[in-house]
Amino acid sequence: MDSNDAPGGSSDFQQELLALRQDPQVRWRAWRLAGDLDLAEDLIQSVCCLLIALKHPERIEDLRAYYFRVLHNEATKLYVLRQEIPFEDVDDPPVPAQPLDEKVCNSLHAQIWLNRLAVWRDRLLVGIPARSDDPVRYKILIFNTANQVLRDGINGELSEADSNDAWRAAYPEYFAQPCVSADLLHQRFRRARLDARALLQKVVNRDELT
User: Fold this and answer.
1) Does 146 share its domain with 170?
2) pLDDT digits (tens, 9 = 90+) for 119-139
């Protein structure tokens, strides 16, 4: 049986899923949706189980966007179960109110992360793999994308900065290169996202998300 036909899909899919599970923006968004760290972990686990069970995960063009959509849907179900009332907008579940001390703490963390990005910029750029024929352009794009993803996450927004369309628009010569196979383009999208997440993981410590 082809590995892509089995539940859980290929090893690439599983690696992408694992990277998403550990993604700071995913954890941040799950916490905002659930309003509780333990519930956020349950929410992330539920999404991973649902995606692992997919029979044809290779049909998902943009796994990150799909992951966030499922995350929102599962958060909506959780909200309905907890409140026992229907909720109409499945795309934007309500965010539980935060105590003032948590808001202050989160604000301080956000400023720390943004300051790290600015101060460590040159060092972070050096650490980004040179994957295209124009490595400087690629590295700057990864940095700028990670920057926008972080800002969107801090604002509690779903980021489109690392969507396939965003990659294509920012660097069409690489992410929409003519006469290149769909499989190769998929690998480029996947590696670019992994590069952006690796950069964010250097800026945002996991302990700071708890």
Assistant:
1) yes
2) 999 999 999 999 999 999 999
